[in-house]
Known about the structure:
Elements: H1 54-97
Amino acid sequence: MFRPKFPEAPTLPSTHVISPSIPTVPHSHAPACSCQHTPAAPEPTRRVAPGFSAGTVAAVVTVGIVLTALLAAVAITAISVAVAAVVMRSLLTSQRRR
């Protein structure tokens, strides 16, 4: 249920298609040196991570709002308990003096 579903990577064609409307002109270049050069290795293909879906973003925002509300509720409760403790202490101290 909570496992991500990754999209299938599209397969690229392995052959090059040359358009017949563009004429090819053979070039005859003299080699710069007589040594044999090896062709450069092709770059490895990069897999791009899929983006976040709207459901994932909504879930993260909802969890953030709920956690913030819980933190605010705990802070307000702590402040009210502290105020009540100060008031009770004040009442008890004034009764002892009499």
